[in-house]
Amino acid sequence: MADNKTISLCLKTICAAYPRFEISEDTVRVWTSFVGDLDDDLLTAAVFRFISSSDHAFPPSIPEIRKEATEMRREISGVPSSFEAWNEVIKAPAPSPLPQ
User: Fold this and answer.
1) Does pLDDT of 89 surpass 90?
2) Residue 75: C-alpha distances to residues 4, 29, 82 (Å)
3) Which of 61, 73, 76, 100 is the most exposed place for a label (fewest CB within 10 A)?
4) pTM score of the predicted model
């Protein structure tokens, strides 16, 4: 579980990457409430992955960081994405008809 030190470090990293992002005691408290269940390493990796993506011109919201963390867990565990799973279904051979 992410501790206050890790969450504060992640918020400082976000602040450094997005200068208009401001940190207050309330910000740390709210983020702790909503991302405190994530492992320290997973939270840090999710923040770094979000920031390093060229898709994001604005600081992350809590749901965006949770989404990154969920996606990373999925990738690590080898669970296919929705697209990958559907692609497997499409490529699967058609079932043989049952004998009558």
Assistant:
1) no
2) 26, 29, 12
3) 100
4) 0.78
